[in-house]
């Protein structure tokens, strides 16, 4: 029994000090990617929730930029989440939605382009405060 315990402990020590096989490294990277993507999704949701709560005219670009900025800072998974998730929250990007948003909703194509610019600005690491309107409470 003691011999097997010693062999087990020696194996653990040797495995801990040895280089990890590629498959294990790949699994670890995949896990980090998924964790970053989940965190980025939470960042995007928090920005969306704050935008709805603030209900402040002209602040939508700020929240777009902030959500994308926070998500992209998490790493590759967060940056992926920021590219994939669109406003309104968790709707995939589609031409049909963009057409509806620019035509039917009354927002206009120019506003949609400005939203996309704010998204890109935040994803690229630009300061979201560029879009922060005067008078928006400091809570946001």
Automatic annotation (TrEMBL):
GO terms for biological process: acute-phase response. Residues 1-18 form the signal peptide. Pfam families: SAA. GO terms for cellular component: high-density lipoprotein particle. Keywords: Acute phase, HDL, Signal. Coiled coil: none annotated. InterPro entries: Serum_amyloid_A (IPR000096), Synovial_Prolif_Regulator (IPR052464). Residues 100-140 are annotated as: Disordered. Belongs to the SAA family. Major acute phase reactant. Apolipoprotein of the HDL complex. This is Serum amyloid A protein.
């Amino acid at each position: 029994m003691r011999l097997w315990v010693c062999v087990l402990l020696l194996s653990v020590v040797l495995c801990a000090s040895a280089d990890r096989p590629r498959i294990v490294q790949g699994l670890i990277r995949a896990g980090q990617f998924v964790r970053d993507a989940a965190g980025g999704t939470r960042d995007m949701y928090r920005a969306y929730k704050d935008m709805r709560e603030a209900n402040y005219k002209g602040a939508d670009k700020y929240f777009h930029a902030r959500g994308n900025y926070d998500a992209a800072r998490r790493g590759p998974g967060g940056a992926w989440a920021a590219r994939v998730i669109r406003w309104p929250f968790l709707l995939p990007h589609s031409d049909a939605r963009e057409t509806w948003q620019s035509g039917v909703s009354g927002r206009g194509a120019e506003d949609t382009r400005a939203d996309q610019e704010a998204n890109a600005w935040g994803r690229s690491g630009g300061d979201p405060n560029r879009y922060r309107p005067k008078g928006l409470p400091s809570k946001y």
